[in-house]
Structures are given as C-alpha cells and as structure tokens.
Write a structure and sequence with these properties.
single chain, Rossmann fold, eight-stranded mixed sheet, alpha/beta, 13% strand
Length: 679
Amino acid sequence: MQVVKTFGLRNRRYLGSKRAVLPVIGEVIAGLGEPPQTAADLFAGTGVVGQLLARAGLAVTFNDLLSANTTVYRAFFGPEPVRADLLAELVAGINAAPRETLAPNYFSRTFGGTYYTDANARLIGYFRICIQDWHTGGRISDRERDVLIASLLYGMDKAAATVGHYDAFRIGAATQARPVFGLPELESFETVHTVTRQDANQLVRQHHWDLVYIDPPYNSRQYGDLYHVLDNVTDWQQGPVQFKARKMDRRHLKSDYCTTAAVPAFSDLIEALDTSTIIMSYNDTGSRGNARSAARLADDDILTIMRRRGRVEVVDVPHREFTTGRSGIGEIVERLFVCHVDETAAVLAPRAQALPAAQPAGREATGETGTLVRSPLNYTGNKKRLVSEIIPLLPGPGEEHQRFVDVFSGSMTVGMNAGYSRVAFNDVQVDVVGLGQLFAGTPYSEIVAQVEALIAEYGLSDSQAHGYQTYGANSSNGLGQVNKAAYLQLREDFNAMDSADQRRLFAFFTLVVFGFNNQIRYNRSGEFNMPVGKRDFNSRVRKNLFDTVARMHALTPELWTLDFRDVFGKLQTTDLVYCDPPYLLGTAPYNEQNAWTVDDETALLDELARFAARGGTFGLSNVLTHKGSEHDQLADWAAEHGFTVHTLDYSYANSSYQRKDRNASREVLITNWTGPAAH
C-alpha cells in the first residue's frame, strides 16, 4: 500500500469555523434531559459541529449550499465502503506527476498566475481530470470520487495565495511549493448520515429532527462568492468566469442571511422547524469593523424570534475571530442560543401576535432603511417617499389624539408609520382592506407558505431560490416573459374565485407581487387587470412583507371599507384624521375610470372643514400644481379656513409609470394643527 499523509475534517481554512465552540456545544447536548437521536447541521460549513454530533451517536443531516462542502461531507460521512489501497495508490501517483510537463487545462488557463502559480494550477487541473476519467470509466465509486475530490480541495487550499477565502488573491504571493495531496481520516459510525444541498428554509419543511444546529452567515459576505474556486473545481463544469477574482455566476447561491432580509428569513426558519431543541451560533460583531463585517441579526431579533418557540438560554464563548486582518473587530463573543422548544398551545397561540415589530418611525422620521416600514403594496401615489416629511407635521399620540384614522389607506404606509398604537385603516377597495386583515391576523410564515404554494402550483418563477439564469433571464430584463402565461392564468382564476374562497386573498397578494410595479388596478367590471411585472417574490418583497406583518401585529388596528363620507360619521374629536385621496390633477390606475370627481373633492373638503370646526385635527395630502395645472379650489379652500399649507420637497421619481415630467408637481400637506411640532 502506498503511504500518503492524512488530514482531518477541520484541517482547512474557513471563515466562521466553529472549532472554538465545540466543547461548549458538547456540554449543552450532554445536559439535555432526553438524549437526541437525530440532528441537522443546517449551515454546516466545515462540518465540524455535525462531526461532533455524529461522534456522539446521532444520525446527522449535513446541509450546505456549496457543492465543495457537501462533497467533503459525503467523503467523510458517507456509508459506502472505500478501497483505501486503491485511493492511496491514485493519490501517490498524482503526487509523483511531473507538474512542469503537464499539459495546460481549464484550471490552469483560468486560475494560473492568480491564486496559484501556473505549474500548480496545471497539477490541480490534471488531478481533477484524472478523477473525472477514473469515475466515468468505472474505476472508482461515487464515494471514492468524493474522497479524491476532498483530497484535491484540502491540498489546493493550502497552496492558495489567499487569506482563507477566494474573494480575492494576493498578487504575486502564490507559493512555488508543490501542493501535496493526502487522504481524509475516515471514521466508522453506528448511525447513517445524510448529506443535502438545499435552501435551509425549504429543507426544514420536509423533516423532523430531535436537535437542530444553526450557524447562518453573520454578515454581508456571501459564502458562494468566498469559495467559488473550490466549487468550480468540484463541479467541473468548466464554464466561463468573470472579474479579477475569476468567479462563476453565483447569483443563485445568494443567501438572504447576508442581506437586509435576514430577520424575516430567520423568523421563517424558526417558525418552520419541527424539532425539540434548537442551538444557534452567532456573534456580536454588531456595527464594529467595516460594513461588510456588520452582523445582519441583532441579539434582540434572535431572542424575540426564538422565544416564540420556547425557553431560551444564552451561553457566551469568547474567542478571537478569524478575519482578513482589516475588519477592526478583534476579540468577539460567540453566543450560543439554546431554545428548548415547547409546542404547547400556550406557546403557539401568541406567536402570530409576537412578531418583532420594526421600529416606529417616531416623531422625527428619517425614511432610512430600518426606520420606516415599507409596504409590499406599491399603491400608486402611496406615501412611502413622503412619509418622513408628513409625520413630523402632525401631532403625536396622547390624550388629545388617541387614534390615527387613515381615510384612504391604500398601501397603509402612513398609518403603519404614524407612531400610533391605535390605527384605523379605511379603503373602498375590499381586496386591499382584505390584505390589511391578512397582514394583521396571519403569521408571516403562513403567508409565505401559501404564496410559495401558489408559485409552485402555477409554475411562476422563484428567483430567490433558483436565480435569474435558471429562467434564461437577468435582472435588467426581468421575469415578465417567463411569468406571463402563468400570471394570466392565476389572474383569470382569481377573478373567478368566490369571495369566501380561503385562498382568494393569498392569490390576490401573489398577483400584486408578480404584477406590474406591485400595483393594483381593476376594470369597469371590477376584475383585477394589472399586467405581469418584471419581478417575483424576491428578498426585498419578503422583507417588506415581514416588516408589515410585524407592524400590523404590534398595532391595534381597525379595518374599514367605507365611503369617506361615512367615515366622518364615525369620528371622534380625539381622532387624528389623515386623508390621501385620489388627485384631481393626476391620473393613476385607481382613478382611470373617473372614480374621483369634482363633487367627491368638494364633499371631502366640506367634511374636513366641518371636522375642524368640531375641534378635530386633520392632515390632507394633495397637489396644488401638476403639469401646468393649478388646483385653485384647494388653494382657495385652505386660504378661506386659514389652514396651513406645507410644501413637501420629495420628487416622485417612480410613483407613476405614466408621468414623464416628474418635477412638475407641487406636493403639499394641508393641516389645521396649530400646536408645537410634536415630531
């Protein structure tokens, strides 16, 4: 038998390796009342935590999105036998091959002179070609192929001119020393282990485990980009690469946990888990170091979400983080969050009401991301761009103003961000108010599950899971042509649905998500008729949905479908009334059939004047100038009653697809509030 060196699972460089926390995780598992029999390592990375669980006798599911990682798991934990003598002979032959005389190959042409010298790149490519030929020719089995690829990955990693990942290479630093390939130290296990390569949020909906370990990405660094070279040589598709780092197209591997959608993704994951114990690793990088190192989940987010499932313990494990040397973090605290899941009704019942609410806009709204809740409904004329200017001009909640009444609520943007706990949302569109009721009374995870079921049923795109390239599309051109037929079928089915159909609101929301600009429009027969749009149920929409559901659950909302005249009959003088009616001077989908007339405008102004005379407080959004036209009636009315006209500065850059001259409007907020600026 040829003698070759061996290596352990942990003998590689990898960001976020969990070697330092293994003893503590072992103690936590040992302290569980009922020993677990099955476990999942959902973001397995190096696989060392899964290895710990496997050595403890558990049947482990190793999951990761990177093909290099899942290949390593199959090599170390696969149940099939391997022929050690044959593998040693093959690796010894590679180690003896004269690299200087090897022919150029895909790997050397792609990566020679970058992460590796040309000679070492030729040797790496040669080894991979040999593995492919041996497997295709039947000389080695599937697991033996995986063992040899693991040998290649571990050997080439030690020779790479990197700082532990392949987001960039150190120019001129590639070692001349020849990489030496070994064989993994294989163990025998009493239990059978499983390897999956799947989105964790989808995987957990298909299985039960006694224990689940979670170690999601901490920051904006996408692991699919960091280890693209290893995936390239593993998959061996020999495809085109781009940019200085020589990356393949990795868009389909983008993780929500590295984006602003991390909180809703994490909430969805925890909600869907079928397990008794959840152990999560995370650290407190927070906002320290550079922006890419800033944590995407805060401790408060993690605790709030995990406590919906049961009792949570927090264990701190100080250690020094491996970095590229410029993050400015230094020593950090790795935290283990241990959730002992309680599936009793007492725990499950309040979960829908316990979603972490996004922070209120406050009385000094800034409109910055994370401050304002952005609705997933892009109602034409909605105030998501102006809400940070409107809110400071209105009084805050208190004894004089106890409830915020949004008379033309549309996307609900202003009401959700008004800073009031009691909010009445009114709109004459029954389906729009129905969505408000859906958001207020349904857990985020259930809405997502229903939408995803419709996506699968109708064959709509899922770019978040599969990437644009799966559909032969790109971000610029969008997915309109891909989804058009399926969308039109869903639209036809929705228009034929009975109002009592339980899936109707989910179908309506799905139409809005996949529709043009996420807008809402009906024809004269009352049928939804918005055309298909360019986007789908992507991470941005999911985050906006999550924030909206969280805010609606945090409020005490009332949802009405009344004519505005009837709303004024329900008002108290302690209500703060906000009106954002259709604009006479504008044309939007909701007003294309003369749905708002001069008589309606006059009636609304009369109602507001009477409400003010009773001692009530209001704010009215409108335009005084638009495309050269003046709203003289509105200006005269405000002057006659001595109301204050505030000019709002924000230009509607994308609020209506029909407007070309986008700076020709004077947007205003008219108020009768004379108190101090409370915002």
